[in-house]
Amino acid sequence: MDQVALIALGANLDGASGGPSDTLRAALRALEETQGCRITAVSRFFQSPAYPPGAGPDYVNAVAALECGVSKEGLLARLHEIEDSHGRHRKTRWGARTLDLDLLAFGRVVAPSEVTWRQWRELDRDQQRVRAPEELILPHPRIEDRAFVIVPLVEIAPDWQHPVTGQSALEMYRALPPGEIEALVPLS
What we know:
- It holds the Pfam family HPPK.
- By secondary structure, the chain is of the alpha+beta class.
- The protein has one domain (3-186): Alpha-Beta Plaits.
- The chain contains seven helices and six strands.
- The protein has helices spanning 20-32, 72-85, 114-121, 125-130, 147-156, 169-175, 178-182, and strands at 3-11, 37-42, 46-48, 59-68, 100-106, 185-186.
- Strands 1, 2, 3, 4, 5 and 6 form a six-stranded antiparallel beta sheet that branches.
């Protein structure tokens, strides 16, 4: 049975495909070619301030929904292949990058467990800057904190419900500080 996967796309450096918007379009084309997956929705592209503030040039961000007949691990491996083909180098956590593809959610899967998800969700900011999980954590533990994810997500899936908190994307949007929403500029 196919699962609905939510993918966050972001870039703030030029790459082989051109500027960040060009890179996101190329990544979407590569996702369309992924065996067993079909894109069902793509948000507009948004210009957003780098996170954390001062970490580089502004980003271009979007969110896509896919119906996938592959495993979450298979999809993650494909996302990493696409990133690599666009010159992504994982040197600095939260640093500038040619392409970032994050698997936000995969159906209603909570992985590897709710206990582990909560540990990563509650990790303090200093540890978030230096630690990266060695295993896939689903849903992404920071979805509701990031306007650059929630704003495009609510465009394509306002009723999407977080499998742990039960909040919808629209409820998460309404909880964001207004200044964070206003900092995003639609590009398309």
